[in-house]
Design a protein that fits this description.
Blueprint lengths: L12 E7 L3 H12 L5 E5 L7 H4 L31 H15 L5 E3 L3 E7 L4 E6 L2 E10 L21 E4 L13 E5 L3 H11 L4 E5 L6 E2 L8 H9 L1 H16 L2 H5 L6 H14 L3 H7 L11 E2 L3 H5 L4 E4 L3 E4 L3 E4 L4 E3 L2 E4 L14 E2 L6 H5 L18 E3 L12 H22 L1 E6 L1 H15 L3 H4 L21 H7 L8 E5 L9
Parallel strand pairs: 1-2, 1-6, 2-3, 4-17, 6-18, 7-16, 8-9, 8-16, 9-12, 10-11
Antiparallel strand pairs: 4-5, 5-6, 13-14, 14-15, 19-20
Helix pairs in contact: 1-12, 5-6
């Protein structure tokens, strides 16, 4: 259930304005408060904290990163029941952390960022929200890369007379029992919800464009003894977390240097197919024709057995149009359907918030990135946008480990930047163009040898220019070390005037 919508009047000015109340926004708020930067406001378009884990409530929703890594390092969760956490537990964890941290009094729910403009004279951000205007010295975006669902562009989709919704906007009022259901897409959300939908639908069509690699989900319930130790002997849970972190980090060479190191994972995926699907023809259609890791590796024990059920069809012919009550594929087949579930991912390489943020000269982030794709400095700051900090920005995504580790690394960098501004009386700072360009040249040079570039597939990691602007092509501990100190020498700065009041 969502928190009560914010009813109090919004402040007209704050020192720090944070956008989004998922892991990134909540983490930023807690760390700002701990650092004595208490004059902040978090605005959230929805009615509760949680971000992705509030929005994605489809059947079977769960994390594919081990539980012990999927929490703030400063707020471990001894209440995980499984080694891979289901969505309700993650959302409950975030709600508890928010409540216990004492920062919720500075959250404004039901408040959408409509436009943010940098005032070059006042050297402040002027932000128009759905509930009024706010000015701020710093603007911290925690809106995330998996927040805005992507709908497919299919002829006739607007004419469909049945129920149609995106997996990230699950309509719980729609009863799937006894209905003919179609799921479009075979990504991370789809392989979790398909087995659940197959349990109740009269017939299920799964529309696959590209076969994913799906390895076994080595999930288990924690024992009673383990949970008691997590609660009463924190060192035990810390040891679990450390071991899990380094286990996950061992995957990095296979992604970024030597794809052949992923051969054991590839064999596990092919064995998963063999165990789950007895029909040779169906096995062939779900077997990928590219290198493992090129697209996101998925985990499930139930996806392949669901596809093998008698009332489930895997459809590999492309969809050409949707009618009022059917989906028509390129082979001419018209498949009757009552409910369409769209599981086609999110806007990751062209984040919608970029169209709303205007920097120097009034240019939006989207306009700046139109020719080059997303390109920032250390995935956090962008030339031409003073005092803008983006959490989970360009090239910060991961294919193997927890984004919470990346988020905490960025938050520490932002806090050091804010402290530097206070100590040196800086009114504004932004990365130098030459430094930002050098950072991105190095990223793209490293990207050329990764499996994401050489694996022979197209993926949502790549933008319209074929550039991978989403993933980090090195170890996560390297990312943390590069953001361990705010490197002010890489920035253009503007000092406060001697008569100018510094925000509290």
């Amino acid at each position: 259930m969502d928190a009560e919508p914010t009813s109090q009047t919004l402040p007209t000015a704050v020192t720090h304005l944070v956008v989004g109340a998922g892991f990134a926004g909540l983490g930023a708020a807690i760390r700002l408060d701990e650092a004595g930067e208490s004059d902040f406001l978090v605005i959230e378009k929805d009615g509760d904290v949680g971000g992705t884990w509030r929005a994605n409530t489809y059947p079977g929703a769960a994390c594919d990163v081990p539980s012990q890594l999927y929490s703030f390092s400063f707020a471990p969760n001894p209440e995980w029941t499984r080694s891979f956490s289901p969505q309700p537990e993650i959302h409950a964890y975030l709600r508890r952390v928010a409540r216990e941290s004492g920062v919720l009094d500075r959250f404004a729910f039901g408040t959408t960022l409509e436009e943010a403009r940098y005032d070059e004279v006042a050297r402040r951000w002027v932000v128009r929200t759905s509930r009024g205007e706010i000015t701020a010295t710093t603007l911290i975006s925690g809106s995330g890369g998996l927040s805005e669902p992507r709908l497919p562009e299919i002829e006739g989709i607007e004419d469909f007379r049945g129920e149609l919704f995106h997996s990230a906007r699950w309509d719980h009022d729609v009863d799937l029992a006894g209905n003919r259901v179609a799921v479009i897409g075979t990504g991370a959300s789809s392989i979790q919800l398909v087995p659940e939908v197959a349990k109740v639908a009269a017939h299920l069509d799964v529309h696959q464009r590209t076969a994913p690699y799906v390895i076994p989900r080595n999930d288990r319930r924690y024992t009673r003894v383990e949970r008691l130790l997590f609660r009463h002997v924190p060192a035990v849970q810390k040891a679990y977390r450390t071991a899990t972190y380094w286990g996950r980090e061992s995957y990095v060479p296979a992604f970024v240097r030597q794809p052949r190191l992923a051969l054991p994972a590839k064999k596990a995926a092919l064995l998963n197919i063999a165990r789950g699907i007895p029909d040779p023809e169906l096995r062939a259609r779900v077997t990928p024709d590219y290198e493992i890791g090129c697209k996101r590796i998925l985990i499930s024990n139930t996806y392949y057995p669901a596809l093998a059920r008698d009332h489930v069809d895997l459809v590999t012919d492309p969809i050409v149009r949707i009618t009022g009550d059917s989906i028509v594929t390129a082979d001419g087949t018209e498949r009757p359907v009552d409910v369409i579930i769209v599981a086609t991912g999110f806007h990751t390489t062209e984040q919608p918030i970029a169209e709303r943020i205007h920097g120097r000269g009034g240019r939006t982030l989207a306009e700046v990135w139109a020719d080059t794709g997303m390109a920032s400095y250390k995935g956090t700051t962008t030339h031409g946008f003073p005092n803008l900090f983006q959490l989970v920005g360009a090239n910060t995504g991961l294919g193997h480990s927890s984004m919470v580790f990346i988020i905490e690394s960025q938050i520490a960098y932002v806090l050091d930047a804010i402290a530097t501004m206070r100590i040196h009386r800086y009114a504004a700072l932004e990365p130098r163009r030459d430094v930002q360009d050098a950072w991105n040249r190095d990223l793209q040079r490293r990207m050329r040898r990764t499996v994401w570039s050489t694996g022979g597939c197209a993926s949502w990691y790549l933008d319209a220019h074929g550039r991978n602007t989403t993933l980090w092509p090195r170890a996560t501990f390297t990312f943390r070390s590069l953001l361990a100190r705010f490197d002010v020498e890489a920035y253009d700065v503007e000092a406060h005037r001697t008569d100018e009041r510094i925000p509290a």
